[in-house]
């Protein structure tokens, strides 16, 4: 009897050990994504706005591409480093029809994009490519490319487009909300910012649900960054701002607290929405990525990480409230201002006062890809695992 009890105990322990090992093996397996579909604003736009309106000009793209490319940086964006990490080529913008390949996905992100619908035109600082439109563009992409694979000569399309069954094996990345928060900031004192933010995240949830309906199953969702730490928001580049002397207006890094507080509120509500989506869709994985913390860590440790002061801007003119963005020129107080880039962009966090340099993008990408800033804390290559 004693021997039988010992034997049973050993069997149970062995079974438990094998179960744990199986779970470890499962958690270490790569998802082997077939494609990436990206949705967002200028932080991940790889050509939409240039294809739709005006082509890119130097010095945008000068560091990595050595020519004008359709990115709001001197080189690669975070989405470019994500694609490289997953073993895929750079994503082509959905509406960029020249020299594009969509075999490994498409990028629907567009500069100035928002989650909410807009009443402004591009020339008024708006964009027609809101998240809702980007999601509909994906639906069209899926529908149109799917038809190719029902034709007799479908083999000729496999080199250019993902197979219909690859949609469920793809990762859907969303990095949007910064422009919505900027709009909320502009309405502080005029409208209820808490209600506005709640409406934004609820509308975001609807677009995620639409993507799920269209076949998306793995979501990698970035929250919004510290908008109050963008150099153009800092008082050093806005001498006309009469609030700079108010106690508590700025944090230890010179960032505007009130603006970052709104971003934090958005992020908290966004995370709550992600939790609800997990509860609603048990056949999908939702990874919430804390971009705010990753970017703020870089800003807080700029010097230790080899960067200049985070308020520094590599390209553009930003003085006394006047802003001439990178690659443009203007006449201010009778003096012609011609903008050019700094001598070494790799030393700067901010490229043009709003967007990050390639060096900063790479620093951030290296921090988020291993899951260190994610909930659940899974590397991006394993983010297809469903956790509830």
From TrEMBL:
Keywords: Glycoprotein, Glycosidase, Hydrolase, Signal. Its EC number is 3.2.1.51. The keyword Hydrolase applies. One of its GO terms (molecular function) is hydrolase activity, acting on ester bonds. Pfam families: Lipase_GDSL (PF00657). It is an enzyme of class 3 (hydrolase). InterPro entries: GDSL (IPR001087), SGNH_hydro_sf (IPR036514), SGNH_plant_lipase-like (IPR035669). The keyword Iron does not apply. Residues 1-22 form the signal peptide. Belongs to the 'GDSL' lipolytic enzyme family. This is GDSL-like lipase/acylhydrolase. It comes from Medicago truncatula.
């Amino acid at each position: 009897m004693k021997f039988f009890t010992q034997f049973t105990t050993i069997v149970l322990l062995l079974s438990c050990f094998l179960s744990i090992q199986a779970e470890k093996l499962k958690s270490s397996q790569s998802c082997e994504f077939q494609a990436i579909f990206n949705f967002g604003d200028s932080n991940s736009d790889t050509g939409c706005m240039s294809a739709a309106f005006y082509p890119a000009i130097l010095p945008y793209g000068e560091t990595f591409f050595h020519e004008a490319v359709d990115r709001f940086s001197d080189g690669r964006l975070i989405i470019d480093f994500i694609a490289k990490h997953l073993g895929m080529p750079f994503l082509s913008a959905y509406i960029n029809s020249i020299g594009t390949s969509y075999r490994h996905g498409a990028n629907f992100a567009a500069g100035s994009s928002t989650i909410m619908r807009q009443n402004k035109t591009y020339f008024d600082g708006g964009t027609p490519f809101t998240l809702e439109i980007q999601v509909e563009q994906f639906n069209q992409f899926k529908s149109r490319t799917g038809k190719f694979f029902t034709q007799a000569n479908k083999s000729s399309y496999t080199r250019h487009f993902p197979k219909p069954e690859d949609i469920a094996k793809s990762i859907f990345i969303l990095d949007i909300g910064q422009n919505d928060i900027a709009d909320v900031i502009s309405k502080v004192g005029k409208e209820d910012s808490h209600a506005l933010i709640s409406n934004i995240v609820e509308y975001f949830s609807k677009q995620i649900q639409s993507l799920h309906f269209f076949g998306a199953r793995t979501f990698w969702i970035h929250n919004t960054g510290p908008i109050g730490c963008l150099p153009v928001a800092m008082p050093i580049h806005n001498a006309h701002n009469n609030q700079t002397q108010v106690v508590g207006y700025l944090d230890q890094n010179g960032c505007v607290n009130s603006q970052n507080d709104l971003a934090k509120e958005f992020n908290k509500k966004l995370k709550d929405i992600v939790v609800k989506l997990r509860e609603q869709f048990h056949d999908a994985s939702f990874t919430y990525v804390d971009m705010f913390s990753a970017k703020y860590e870089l800003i807080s440790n700029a010097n230790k990480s080899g960067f200049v002061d985070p308020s520094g801007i590599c390209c553009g003119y930003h003085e006394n409230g006047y802003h001439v963005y990178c690659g443009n020129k203007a006449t201010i107080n009778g003096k012609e201002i011609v903008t050019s880039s700094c001598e070494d962009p790799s030393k700067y966090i901010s490229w043009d006062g709003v967007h990050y340099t390639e060096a900063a993008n790479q620093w951030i990408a290296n921090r988020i890809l291993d899951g260190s800033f994610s909930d659940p804390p899974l590397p991006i290559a394993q983010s297809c695992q469903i956790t509830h």
